[in-house]
Amino acid sequence: TQLLEQSPQFLSIQEGENLTVYCNSSSVFSSLQWYRQEPGEGPVLLVTVVTGGEVKKLKRLTFQFGDARKDSSLHITAAQPGDTGLYLCAGKVKINAGGTSYGKLTFGQGTILTVHP
Amino acid sequence: GAGVSQSPSNKVTEKGKDVELRCDPISGHTALYWYRQSLGQGLEFLIYFQGNSAPDKSGLPSDRFSAERTGGSVSTLTIQRTQQEDSAVYLCASSFRQGAYNSPLHFGNGTRLTVT
What we know:
Chain A has 117 residues and is mainly beta. Chain A is built from no helices and 11 strands. In chain A, a hairpin with a 2-residue loop joins strand 9 and strand 10 (100-107). The chains are: A mainly beta (117), B mainly beta (116). Chains A and B meet through strand 5, strand 9 and strand 10 of A and strand 4 and strand 5 of B.
């Protein structure tokens, strides 16, 4: 069983501050995805990282995949109230089941981010 | 609609009753997942369907849980003899065949199940 430890679990900051969310595992993943979820809705994909050491930027969000593909981080610069939500990392491993193979996602427990105006 | 549709959006049931949750995936998506999410927590994998292949049921927590996918499209998750610990949000997601590493999952808004 692949486990993803996400930290911190809760983060409450003021508008304009920077923050980093971490996602760690002892397992190697073929890729890692970050999702954002708002109350009453399903998670929405933000980014996928595939290569060890890869860095991707999405406006004020910077995502990094560890060199060994076991960990990842999400850094937000100058956070805004609109960034408030639940951030989830999800690692993908290849599974052989039922005569086929597929990429199975294992989710971390999430980070609840609140950005105060 | 263009997205994943789940119904009902909310379900309150008495302990011991059976419930059925429905998921309509995005047209053309062959992969379908069910996840369970407790309040403010991460997602727990339940079951995966891919085309006509046998489903991966490894995440179902007990034999009270079952799921079907008819005609490779609509899926139903059934919970028999519900217990209070079954209370959670049940999320369905679909994607193109999971052969590509970066295929994103498209989630529905979930069914919030409350067992009283």
